[in-house]
């Protein structure tokens, strides 16, 4: 199979879909890999490293897209890339379609085959291709909170761990999945007081046993959320419903009850955000203020630590990429039901229920398709 790796063009996105070592594995399995020149530079991978791994380096992104049978990316296609989409192309990347109706229709109109990292499942029903970036984003979220709580950055002037005789920061984390767990670990390690909320009481019981520090766990409901954020110095949104829009757990009406200079980092922004006032921002313009609350909504947070992120992502995605390349799409999905759940669009049809429900579109189940 001919596999293409174009350079990421989203604002301040420095990750690359596959590092040179992963390209070498694809070539060792008999595949041809096309890499746009400079694709790895943001992650400190040189063109020479890709060439030494056996990749063919191309000067233009358009040529990579046109010649490839499967394009591997990190982030969803940007509007300037929509013209590259076509019916006989497999696109394997983070799509997050529930957050973008325009992208959904662009994919449907093109007839492209869209495999989404974020909805691939393993045998235990976990999301193995989302997990590494969720780990990065969770850890980063707490670092970002600490940064924006500083007064010169618009915050309340709070030190995360406080000092003897002074209270530490109070950080409320909505969601105790991968993002929330890693955010809590770092916040507790910095000495903050953490309130971790989720609807899964078994998960909260487990985390209350394994996490050490100033941790309170609460069942996630409207009353508890409202009361917790009223005393929070920072709120981290870490809610996920696979493939669907995140529910608004913090509403616009709650914001005036939050402290001036408090900070919201909504990691769920990729799926529409779990805070009603969240909107996507970029690394070049990451924050805005509503009712005195600093909002951070960067939709590609791990892009700020691209070398770590690119290695972590490839560790998870490469086995699935190899499976599709070695077996072909049809046999790969038949052999792996979890991989088949990654199929979000196919030749003009929506194939993932949550995406169809979000935009009130008809869904064509995978088993009904002739692939």
Explain how this protein is built.
- The protein is α/β, with parallel strands linked by helices.
- 33% of the residues lie in helices and 17% in strands.
- The chain folds into 2 domains: 2-119 and 306-368, NAD(P)-binding Rossmann-like Domain (Rossmann fold); 135-299, 3-Layer(aba) Sandwich (Rossmann fold), CATH 3.40.50.
- It is built from 12 helices and 15 strands.
- Helix 9 (306-327) crosses helix 10.
- The mean pLDDT is 96.
Number of strands: 15
Going by helix content, strand content and strand pairing, the class is: alpha/beta
> What oligomeric state do these chains adopt?
single chain
Strands ordered across the widest β-sheet: 3-2-1-4-5-6-14-15
Work out the radius of gyration.
21 Å
Domains counted in the coordinates: how many? Answer: 2
Mean pLDDT comes to 96
Return the CATH architecture of the largest domain: 3-Layer(aba) Sandwich
Shape: globular
Query: How many H/I helices?
Result: 12
How much of the residues is beta strand, in percent?
Answer: 15-25%
CATH class of the largest domain: Alpha Beta
Question: How helix-rich are the residues, as a percent range?
Answer: 25-40%
- CATH topology-level fold name of the largest domain: Rossmann fold
Gist of the model:
The chain is of the alpha/beta class and 371 residues long. The chain has helices at residues 20-28, 47-53, 61-67, 101-110, 131-148, 178-189, 201-210, 222-230, 306-327, 329-335, 337-340, 353-359; strands at residues 2-5, 32-36, 56-58, 70-72, 90-93, 113-116, 170-174, 193-198, 214-219, 234-237, 263-266, 287-290, 293-296, 343-346, 349-350.
């Amino acid at each position: 199979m001919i596999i293409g790796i174009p350079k990421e063009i989203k604002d301040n996105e420095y990750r690359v879909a596959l590092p040179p070592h992963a390209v070498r594995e694809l070539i060792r399995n008999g595949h041809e890999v096309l890499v746009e020149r400079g694709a790895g530079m943001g992650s400190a991978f040189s063109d020479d490293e890709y060439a030494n791994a056996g990749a063919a380096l191309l000067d233009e992104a358009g040529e990579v897209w046109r010649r490839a049978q499967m394009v591997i990316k990190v982030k969803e296609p940007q509007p300037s890339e929509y013209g590259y989409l076509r019916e006989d192309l497999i696109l394997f990347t983070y799509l997050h379609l529930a957050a973008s109706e325009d992208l959904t229709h662009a994919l449907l109109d093109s007839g492209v085959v869209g495999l989404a990292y974020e909805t691939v499942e393993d045998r235990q029903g976990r999301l193995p291709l989302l997990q590494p970036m969720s780990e990065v984003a969770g850890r980063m979220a707490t670092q970002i909170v600490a940064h924006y709580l500083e007064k010169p950055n618009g915050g309340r002037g709070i030190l995360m761990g406080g000092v003897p005789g002074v209270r530490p920061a109070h950080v409320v984390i909505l969601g105790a999945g991968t993002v929330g767990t890693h955010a809590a670990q770092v916040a507790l390690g910095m000495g903050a007081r953490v309130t971790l909320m989720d609807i899964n009481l078994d998960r909260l019981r487990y985390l209350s046993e394994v996490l050490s520090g100033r941790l309170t766990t609460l069942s996630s409901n409207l009353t508890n959320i409202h009361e917790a954020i009223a005393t929070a110095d920072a709120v981290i949104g870490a809610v996920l419903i696979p493939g669907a829009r995140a529910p608004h757990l913090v509403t616009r009406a709650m914001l005036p009850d939050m402290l001036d200079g408090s900070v919201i980092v909504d990691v769920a922004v990729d799926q529409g955000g779990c805070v009603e006032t969240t909107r996507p921002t970029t690394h070049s313009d990451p924050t805005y203020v509503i009712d005195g609350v600093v909002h951070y909504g960067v939709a590609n947070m791990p892009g700020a630590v691209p070398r770590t992120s690119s290695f972590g992502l490839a560790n998870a995605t490469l086995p699935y990429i190899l499976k599709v390349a070695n077996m072909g799409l049809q046999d790969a999905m038949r052999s792996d039901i979890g991989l088949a759940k990654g199929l979000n669009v196919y030749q003009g049809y929506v194939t993932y229920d949550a995406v169809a429900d979000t935009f009130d579109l008809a869904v064509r189940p995978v088993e009904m398709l002739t692939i």
